Amino acid sequence: MTTNEYKHIASLLERFFEGATSKAEEESLYRFFSQREDIPAEWMPYRPVFDYFHEGISRECAPVRKTFLSRRKRRLIWTAAAVALVLLATVGRLYLRRETPFDPYEGSYIIQNGVRITDMEIIRPELEAVTERVMEEKEEMEQLLASADEAVRESMQMQEEINRILHQTE
Question: Cα dihedral angle (125, 127, 128, 132), rounded to 10 degrees?
Answer without folding.
Answer: 140
